[in-house]
C-alpha cells in the first residue's frame, strides 16, 4: 500500500501540469471550434521567451511569468485577429491548415534564432524534495506545477463565469448569430479568447521549461498530451480538463507501477481509448 | 499526427472550377517547359558541367539537428581547401575540376532522408554521396545508394545497425561497434570505481536501445555484472518514478543508459528528486553535446560518463589541411564561439576520404569511384581508415567524464583509454556518490 502512494502522488501532480498544458487548447476547441495545432509550439515559444527574460534579467523563471503572460496574450490576439479569423467560416479545414502552417513556422523560427541546442529554465527548485515518509517524496517543482496549474484553471473558470467578457465569449460560442444580434463583436471576442488561451499556454510553457528540457521541435509532443486531455475531459470544459489531466497521468503511472515502466504511455492512451469508446464526447463534454 | 494528415487530405477549399483553371495552367506550363527545356537547357548543361557533385543529406532540423549543426561550417572549409588549386584532376574532362556539394535537410526523419537521397541521385545526378549521423540518416541513404548504384561514404552510426542493412556493394562505413568497442569501454570505466556491480538499464524503445540492452546483458553477465532491466520506454516519457523505484529496491549502483537527450534530462532530474544517486552513470547518445549536458541544470551533469569517439586530444591530423584535432576545434570555437562537439571531426574526415578517393580515381565513373573507396588506406583526423571485406572500418573509442570546465561550463575529460593508449587521458574518473 505504502508503495502505491508514490505513483498516485506523482500522478496527481503530473496531472495538474497536463491540465494546464491542455486548458488553452480546450478553451479554443470549445469556443471557436478551432483545433489549434500550433498550441504546443506556441507553448514552447513562451518557454523560449521566458528563457530570454531569465537570461536578460537573471531572475527566477517564475518571475518571468509577469512578462511572458502579457506578451502571449498579444501574440494570441493577433494570431486570431490577423490569421485565423480571416479563414473562419463554414468549413473546419482552412483554420486547421493555418494552425498547422503556424506550427511549422514557429518551430523553424525558433530553430533559426535559438539553434537546435537543448535548453531548460534552470531553477533551484528542480531537485528539491520534501520527504513525507520513508518511501514517499514530494517533488517541490511538481507541487509548484500543480498549484500554479490549478490556479490558472480556477482563474479561467471564474473569468468565464463572472465577467462580462467571459459571458460574451461563452455567448459567442453557444450561438454566434444570437450573440452578434445582441451587439457582441464575435470576431473580436474570438481574438480575446485566443489571447486568454495563449496566456494559459504562457504559464504552461514556463512550467514545462522548468520541469523538462525543450528544443525548437518539442511542441508537437505537448500537443499530443493536450489532445489526450481534451478528449478525455470533453471539449471546452474546465472541470473536464482537470479531470482529463489527472486521469491521463494516473493511468500512465499506475499502469507502469503494476506492469512494466515500458508500458507507461500505452496505459495513458489506453485510458483515452476507453473514454472514446464509452463516452465519445468526453467525461464532462456536452452533446456533439 | 495521423489526425493532422487526414484532415489535410480532406481539404477542399478550392472550388472544382478553380482547380480546373489552375490545373490547366500548370499542365500547360509543364508541357511547354517539358518541350523546350530538355532540348535547349539540359544537354547544354550536361555537356558544360565541369565539376564533381557530392550529395550531402544532412539532419539540419529535427531531434538530431545537434549532430548536423556544424555541417555547413565544416563543408565550406573542406571544399574551399579541395578547390584551392582548381580542384581534382578528372580524366573525362581532361583537366582539374572543382568539387561542389549539395546539402539537403533530412529533418531527422529516416523516410525523408531516403527521399532526399533519391532526389540527389535522380535529379541532381550526384557522383558521390557522403553522409553521417545516426542510423536514422545513414541506413536509409545507404539503401538508396545501393538501389541506384551510387558510391556512398558514411560515418558516425554504430556498426551493428548499419550492418543489418547490408550486405553492401556500393557503401563504405566507418565508426565503432557496440559489441567490440562500447562494452569494453563502459565496463572498463565501471571497473575503476568500487561498486556492487548491479547495473540499472535506462534505454529507449528504439533500434539503439533495443540492441544496446541485448548486447550488454549478453556480454556483461560474463564479466560478473547483474542487470536490472525494467523494460524499454517510449520517446518523451514524462515520468520515470517506477524505474527509479525498481532500481532503488534492487540496490543499483551503476546506471547504464542510451536515450535521446530530453528523456535523459527528465529521468536524471527525477533521480535526484527521488534521492537515487548511483555511483556511476554512463549514458550513450544523451550526453554527447555540451548544450544537452548544460540543459540538465545545476550540478546535475557533474561526473556523468559517456563514450568519446573524437576530441581535441585525439593525436590525429587532417590529411586535407594538416590541422591537428586541437587546431580544428580551435578554429570552430573561434568562428562560432561554441564549444567543440564530437561530430565535427567525423564530418571533416568524410571530406578527407572523399578527396583522397577522387584523387585516386581521377574519374567520375561510378564503378571506378567505388573501387577507389574500397582501396582506401589512409590516416584521417579520426584515425586510420581501411575498409574490410564487410565494407567497414572501426574507429577508436575511449571513455570520458563531464566535469566543470574553465573555458566552458562543462568540459569532457578522457578518463579511460585502455584499448587506445595513444589517445591521452586528461582526467581521472571519480564516483558520483
How many domain modules of chain B? 2
Please state the second-level CATH architecture of chain A.
Answer: Orthogonal Bundle
* Strand order in the sheet with the most strands of chain A: 1-2
Mean pLDDT of chain B: 86
- Can you list the strand order of the major beta sheet of chain B? 4-1-5-6-7-15
Q: Specify the biggest β-sheet of chain A.
A: 2 strands, antiparallel
How would you describe the overall organization of this protein?
The complex is a heterodimer of chains A (288) and B (433). With 288 residues, chain A is mainly α. Chain A contains eleven helices and two strands, in the order ααααββααααααα. Chain A has one domain (2-278): ABC transporter involved in vitamin B12 uptake, BtuC, CATH 1.10.3470. Chain A is globular, with a radius of gyration of 19 Å. The mean pLDDT of chain A is 87. Chain B folds into two domains: 49-176 and 313-394, Rossmann fold, CATH 3.40.50; 179-308 and 397-416, Rossmann fold (3-Layer(aba) Sandwich). Helices cover 43% and strands 19% of the residues of chain B. Chain B has a six-stranded parallel sheet, with helices on both faces. In chain B, helix 4 packs parallel to helix 14 (343-361). The two termini of chain B are 43 Å apart. The model of chain B is unreliable at 1-14 and 26-47 (pLDDT under 50). Chains A and B meet through helix 1, helix 4, helix 9 and helix 10 of A and helix 1, helix 10, helix 11 and helix 12 of B.
Amino acid at each position: 500500500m505504502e508503495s502505491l502512494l508514490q505513483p498516485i502522488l506523482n500522478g496527481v501532480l503530473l496531472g495538474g501540469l497536463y491540465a494546464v498544458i491542455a486548458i488553452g487548447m480546450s478553451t479554443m476547441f470549445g469556443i471557436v471550434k478551432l483545433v489549434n495545432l500550433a498550441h504546443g509550439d506556441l507553448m514552447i515559444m513562451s518557454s523560449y521567451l521566458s528563457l530570454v527574460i531569465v537570461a536578460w534579467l537573471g531572475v527566477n523563471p517564475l518571475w518571468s511569468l509577469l512578462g511572458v503572460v502579457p506578451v502571449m496574450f498579444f501574440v494570441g490576439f493577433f494570431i486570431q485577429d490577423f490569421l485565423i479569423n480571416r479563414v473562419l467560416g463554414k468549413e473546419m479545414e482552412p483554420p486547421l491548415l493555418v494552425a498547422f502552417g503556424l506550427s511549422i513556422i514557429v518551430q523553424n523560427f525558433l530553430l533559426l534564432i535559438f539553434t537546435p541546442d537543448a535548453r531548460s529554465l534552470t531553477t533551484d527548485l528542480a531537485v528539491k524534495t520534501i520527504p513525507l515518509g520513508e518511501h514517499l517524496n514530494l517533488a517541490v517543482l511538481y507541487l509548484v506545477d500543480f498549484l500554479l496549474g490549478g490556479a490558472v484553471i480556477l482563474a479561467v473558470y471564474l473569468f468565464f463565469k463572472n465577467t462580462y467578457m467571459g459571458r460574451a465569449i461563452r455567448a459567442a460560442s453557444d450561438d454566434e448569430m444570437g450573440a452578434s444580434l445582441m451587439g457582441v463583436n464575435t470576431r473580436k471576442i474570438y481574438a480575446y479568447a485566443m489571447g486568454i488561451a495563449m496566456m494559459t499556454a504562457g504559464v504552461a510553457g514556463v512550467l514545462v521549461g522548468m520541469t523538462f528540457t525543450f528544443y525548437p521541435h518539442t511542441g508537437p509532443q505537448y500537443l499530443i498530451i493536450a489532445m489526450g486531455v481534451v478528449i478525455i475531459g470533453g471539449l471546452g470544459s474546465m472541470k473536464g480538463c482537470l479531470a482529463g489531466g489527472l486521469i491521463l497521468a494516473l493511468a500512465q503511472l499506475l499502469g507502469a507501477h503494476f506492469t512494466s515502466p515500458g508500458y507507461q504511455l500505452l496505459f495513458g492512451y489506453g485510458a483515452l481509448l476507453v473514454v472514446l469508446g464509452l463516452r465519445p464526447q468526453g467525461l464532462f463534454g456536452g452533446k456533439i | 499526427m495521423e489526425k493532422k494528415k487526414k484532415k489535410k487530405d480532406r481539404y477542399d477549399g478550392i472550388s472544382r472550377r478553380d482547380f480546373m483553371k489552375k490545373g490547366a495552367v500548370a499542365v500547360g506550363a509543364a508541357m511547354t517547359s517539358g518541350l523546350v527545356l530538355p532540348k535547349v537547357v539540359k544537354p547544354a548543361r550536361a555537356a558544360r558541367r565541369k565539376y564533381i557533385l557530392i550529395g550531402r543529406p544532412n539532419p539540419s532540423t529535427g531531434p538530431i539537428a545537434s549532430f548536423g549543426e556544424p555541417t555547413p561550417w565544416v563543408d565550406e572549409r573542406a571544399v574551399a581547401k579541395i578547390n584551392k588549386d582548381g580542384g581534382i584532376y578528372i580524366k573525362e574532362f581532361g583537366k582539374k575540376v572543382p568539387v561542389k556539394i549539395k546539402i539537403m535537410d533530412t529533418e531527422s526523419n529516416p523516410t525523408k532522408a531516403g527521399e532526399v537521397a533519391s532526389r540527389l541521385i535522380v535529379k541532381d545526378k550526384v557522383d558521390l554521396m557522403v553522409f553521417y549521423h545516426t542510423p536514422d540518416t545513414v541506413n536509409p541513404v545507404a539503401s538508396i545508394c545501393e538501389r541506384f548504384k551510387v558510391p556512398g561514404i558514411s560515418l558516425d552510426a554504430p556498426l551493428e545497425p548499419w550492418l543489418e542493412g547490408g550486405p553492401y556493394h556500393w557503401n563504405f562505413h566507418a565508426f565503432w561497434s557496440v559489441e567490440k568497442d562500447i562494452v569494453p569501454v563502459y565496463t572498463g570505466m565501471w571497473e575503476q570505481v568500487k561498486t556492487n556491480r548491479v547495473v540499472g538499464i535506462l534505454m529507449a524503445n528504439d533500434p539503439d536501445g533495443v540492441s544496446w540492452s541485448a548486447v550488454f546483458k549478453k556480454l556483461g553477465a560474463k564479466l560478473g555484472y547483474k542487470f536490472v532491466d525494467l523494460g524499454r520506454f517510449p520517446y518523451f516519457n514524462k515520468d520515470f518514478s517506477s524505474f527509479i523505484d525498481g532500481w532503488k529496491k534492487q540496490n543499483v549502483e551503476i546506471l547504464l543508459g542510451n536515450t535521446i537527450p530530453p528523456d535523459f534530462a527528465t529521468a536524471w532530474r527525477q533521480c535526484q528528486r527521488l534521492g537515487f544517486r548511483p555511483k556511476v552513470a554512463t549514458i550513450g547518445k544523451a550526453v554527447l553535446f555540451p548544450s544537452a549536458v548544460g540543459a540538465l541544470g545545476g550540478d546535475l551533469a557533474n561526473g556523468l560518463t559517456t563514450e568519446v569517439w573524437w576530441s581535441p586530444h585525439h593525436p590525429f591530423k587532417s590529411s586535407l589541411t594538416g590541422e591537428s584535432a586541437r587546431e580544428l576545434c580551435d578554429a570552430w570555437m573561434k568562428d562560432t564561439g561554441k564549444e567543440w562537439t564530437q561530430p565535427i571531426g567525423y564530418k571533416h574526415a568524410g571530406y578527407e576520404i572523399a578527396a583522397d578517393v577522387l584523387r585516386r580515381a581521377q574519374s567520375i565513373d561510378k564503378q571506378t569511384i567505388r573501387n577507389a573507396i574500397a582501396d582506401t588506406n589512409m590516416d584521417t583526423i579520426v584515425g586510420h581508415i581501411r575498409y574490410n571485406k564487410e565494407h567497414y572500418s572501426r574507429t577508436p573509442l575511449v571513455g570520458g567524464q563531464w566535469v566543470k570546465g574553465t573555458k566552458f561550463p562543462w568540459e569532457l575529460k578522457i578518463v579511460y583509454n585502455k584499448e587506445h593508449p595513444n589517445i591521452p587521458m586528461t582526467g581521472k574518473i571519480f564516483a558520483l556518490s
